[in-house]
Design a protein that fits this description.
Protein name: NADH:ubiquinone reductase (non-electrogenic)
CATH class of the largest domain: Alpha Beta
Enzyme class: oxidoreductase
Structural class: alpha/beta
CATH superfamily of the largest domain: FAD/NAD(P)-binding domain
Oligomer: single chain
Keywords: FAD, Flavoprotein, Membrane, Mitochondrion, Mitochondrion inner membrane, NAD, Oxidoreductase, Peroxisome
Radius of gyration: 26 Å
Shape: elongated
Pfam family, one: NDH2_C
Number of domains: 2
Strand order of the largest sheet: 8-15-9-10-11
Number of strands: 19
CATH architecture of the largest domain: 3-Layer(bba) Sandwich
Cofactor: FAD
Strand content: 15-25%
Number of helices: 13
Length: 473
């Protein structure tokens, strides 16, 4: 799509325009530079002889396609491309002046003061995503790990590793060992069910073989207020329940009332101790989205019309999990899925290209431009699959979302190795004797050639010093 490959030349750039059609070209919210001193702290409004500017807030599934020239190997050439990336928080919008107020991210560093600046836009795309829903339950944000960002996955991995090692400390009580090795997942939707199954499978195939001392203690509990996968076909729900139980997941129906540092409390008074708590109960609007004085759709998301416009704010569009159709449109609430957000992004790119070509790219213009067909999400025919076929199709769908063919190849090889050798890339642990029995975790022969000496020793079951454990990540 030409739009994604061609972003605007900023007003301070002298580079040759990238599009053959000079009438309209977009930009993304981008890297702020102070190379040239200016009295305007940010990007000034575009002039009549300059290309119109589109500012995109957010870099998730809805916003990321707009920044595709900045991904991977193209990143070092962002100035040459005339595209920039701002690492900043949006603190406010002035839709009358067509201005975005921003503040740089300092990550809590006391030595760096946040720098505030403004970005003027001709068109604004809000793609800020959503946040995990806690339903106001006390202690969730402090003690649970969500399933939203990459750093959440890293924290789950770190916490699981830590608990596995702590559980082997001499003199630890049976009760404390059981708590440390109890993995609790709250939320029986698709994400919670999939994660519970993967985690339990990892425990059965890898952890219990590598850490012999945990096999009678470590387990996974999935807590859901209603039935798991409530939006799915009844036969698939029964199949998922059977498979989860078979893989060792303990299913509990209940509602969490309170979360404390080492236990959570259900509304019926049941106390559930945990060592790892993962929260997967859906998403909702962020505080910033709630603060915007726009009409809201059901659920508190930014209200949009059929063309993804915010009716009360000219030249403002909203896509992804932060947006939803207004009730007046008669359209149903769209699911908060990556596929939906990405399709909205592509649709809006085509729409803005059309608006620009028809002369409506400037701010406060384009009202008379014919927009064409509204956004429509094509629904797939109902097809219920389970077992290996569904696993293979789902994994294949994941591969299509990987950015480059090289990365797709690496991911596919990793999955094939995992499937063949019953190993996972999430946790690679080498263990020598010291627990009274030899490790039974064997390596795939094809990997031995590239293995370290300690890995070869471990795979062969050779003896080590008494009580010595070597962990490698």
């Amino acid at each position: 799509m030409s739009f994604f490959r061609n972003l605007i030349q900023l007003s301070t750039s002298k580079s040759k325009p990238l599009l053959q059609n000079p009438n309209f070209l977009f930009t993304s919210l981008s890297h702020f530079t102070t190379d040239t001193p200016t009295s305007y702290a940010g990007l000034e409004p575009t002039k009549r002889d300059e290309k119109p500017r589109v500012v995109v807030l957010g870099s998730g599934w809805a916003g990321c396609p707009w920044l595709s020239p900045l991904v991977g190997s193209n990143l070092p050439y962002r100035k040459h491309l005339g595209s920039y990336f701002f690492l900043a928080n949006c603190t406010g919008l002035d839709t009358e002046k067509h201005t975005v107020h921003c503040e740089t991210v300092t990550d809590g560093l006391d030595t760096v003061d946040p720098w505030r600046f403004k970005i003027s836009y001709d068109k604004l795309v809000i793609a800020l995503g959503a946040e995990a829903t806690t339903f106001g339950i006390r202690g969730v944000k402090e003690h649970a790990i969500f399933l939203r960002e990459v750093h959440h996955a890293q924290e789950i991995r770190r916490k699981l590793l830590l608990n596995l090692m702590l559980s082997d400390v001499p003199g630890l009580s049976e009760e404390e060992k059981s708590r440390l090795l109890h993995c609790v997942v709250v939320g029986g939707g698709p994400t919670g069910v999939e994660f519970s199954g993967e985690l339990s499978d990892f425990i059965l195939k890898d952890v219990r073989q590598t850490y012999a001392h945990v096999k009678d203690y470590i387990h996974v509990t999935l807590i859901e207020a209603n039935e798991i996968l409530s939006s799915f076909d009844d036969s698939l729900r029964r199949y998922a329940t059977k498979q989860l139980t078979k893989s060792g997941v303990h299913l509990v129906r209940g509602i969490v009332k309170d979360v404390k540092p080492q236990k959570l409390i259900l509304t019926d008074g049941t106390e559930v101790p945990y060592g790892l708590l993962v929260w997967s109960t859906g998403v909702g609007p962020s505080p910033f989205v709630k603060s915007l004085e726009f009409p809201k759709s059901p659920g508190g998301r930014i209200g949009i019309d059929e063309w993804l416009r915010v009716p009360s704010a000219p030249d403002v569009f909203a896509i992804g999990d932060c947006s939803g159709f207004l009730e007046s449109t008669g359209k149903p609430v769209l699911p908060a899925l990556a596929q939906v957000a990405e399709r909205q992004g592509k649709y809006l790119a085509n729409l803005l290209n059309k608006i620009g070509k028809d002369g409506g790219g400037r701010s406060n213009s384009g009202k008379e431009v014919e927009l064409g067909g509204p956004f429509a999400l094509q629904e797939a025919k109902g097809l219920a699959l389970k077992g290996f076929a569904s696993w293979f199709i789902w994994r294949s769908a994941y591969l299509t979302r990987v950015i480059s063919w090289r990365n797709r190849f690496y991911v596919a090889i990793n999955w094939a190795t995992t499937f063949a050798c019953h190993q996972t890339a999430a946790l690679q642990v080498q263990e020598k004797h010291g627990h009274g029995q030899a490790s039974q975790h064997k390596m795939c022969p094809d990997l031995i050639e590239h293995a370290s000496e300690s890995e070869k020793c471990h795979a062969a079951g050779c003896d080590g010093d008494a009580g010595e454990i070597k962990h490698g990540v």
